[in-house]
């Protein structure tokens, strides 16, 4: 599992709009990663079973999470 912080959650009055946007992005824009909320932060998460995992797949997971987090 690779997790990267993206941004702090906004005040409650703006949180609904942000969560809606993140869910839309999860459904239409992201491949191999998803936005989530952890504590008071929005994070990007990518998961892959470790069975038969090789170094290039680890590299791809890290790069994908970094690419999404830097958007």
Uncertain spans, ≥5 residues at pLDDT below 50?
none
Q: What is the topology, as strand order, of the major beta sheet?
A: 1-3-2
Q: How far apart are the termini?
A: 20 Å
Mean pLDDT: 90
Strand proportion: 25-35%
Largest sheet: 3 strands, antiparallel
> Which structural category do the helix and sheet elements fall into?
alpha+beta
Helix content: 40-55%
Radius of gyration from the alpha-carbon trace, in angstroms: 13 Å
Number of strands: 3
Q: What coarse outline follows from CA principal-axis ratios?
A: elongated
Tally of helical runs: 2
What is the string of helix and strand elements? EHEEH
Description:
The mean pLDDT is 90. The two termini are 20 Å apart. The protein has a three-stranded antiparallel beta sheet. The relative contact order is 0.24. The longest helix has 17 residues. 45% of the residues lie in helices and 25% in strands. Strand 2 and strand 3 form a beta hairpin. The chain is α+β, with helices and mostly antiparallel strands. It contains two helices and three strands.
Short note summarizing the structure:
This protein has 71 residues and is an alpha+beta fold.
């Amino acid at each position: 599992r690779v997790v990267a912080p993206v941004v702090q959650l906004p005040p409650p009055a703006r949180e609904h709009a942000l969560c809606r946007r993140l869910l839309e992005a999860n459904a239409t824009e992201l491949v191999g990663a998803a936005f989530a909320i952890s504590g008071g932060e929005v994070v990007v998460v990518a998961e892959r079973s470790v069975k038969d995992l090789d170094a290039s797949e680890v590299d791809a997971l890290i790069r994908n999470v970094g690419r999404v987090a830097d958007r």
